[in-house]
Amino acid sequence: MKQVKSLRSAFTILTENKIQVTGVSMDTIAEQRSFSDKFDIPFPLLCDTTGVICEAYRIEHPKNKPRRETFLFRNGVLVHHDRAVNPMSQARDVIIRINELVGGQSQ
Q1: Is residue 106 situated within a structural domain?
Q2: Contact 36, 23 (CB under 8 A)
Q3: Residue 28 belongs to a domain
Q4: Residues contacting residue 56 through CB under 8 Å, at least 6 positions apart
Q5: What is the tens place of the pLDDT at every residue in 88-100?
Q6: Residue 67 lies in a domain
Q7: Confidence of residue 107 (pLDDT cuts 50, 70, 90)
Q8: Residues 13, 95: contact at Cβ < 8 Å?
């Protein structure tokens, strides 16, 4: 929930800087829809009920609960992977990292 609040509160800033946010979980479509509606999530959530995405990105998922991780792509290329996400400051951390990657211009 803290992660969602962080991303939701910074969503306008993220999108103004052309940052696309997509969430992925191993929950069912119905569970994700309920979660998204309950917490007013403004970004898409992908269902990975089989673990294909988690496996492709080597995300550990004990008991079908994937770890929180952040992946940043630029022009289709992975440029940053954070395995130690701080849910409360994730949006701020992403903006800072993108500014570092593009020399102060989040484009």
Answers
A1: no
A2: no
A3: yes
A4: none
A5: 888 888 888 888 8
A6: yes
A7: very low
A8: yes
Count of alpha carbons within 13 Å of 102, Cβ hemisphere only? Answer: 16
Would you put residue 46 in left (φ > 0), alpha (ψ -120 to 50) or beta? beta
Q: Distances from the Cα of 21 to the Cαs of 55, 62, 63, 97, in angstroms?
A: 20, 24, 25, 14
Q: Which of the 8 DSSP states describes residue 51?
A: S
Q: Is residue 75 included in any domain, yes or no? A: yes
Domain span including residue 44: 2-101
pLDDT tens by residue, 9-56: 888 887 887 778 888 888 999 999 999 999 999 988 989 999 899 899
Cβ-proximal residues to 84 (8 Å cutoff; 6+ apart), any chain: none
The verdict on pTM exceeding 0.90 is: no
Query: What span, in angstroms and rounded, lies between the C-alpha atoms of 62 and 90?
Result: 22
CATH code for the domain in which residue 8 is found: 3.40.30.10
Domain count, the chain: 1
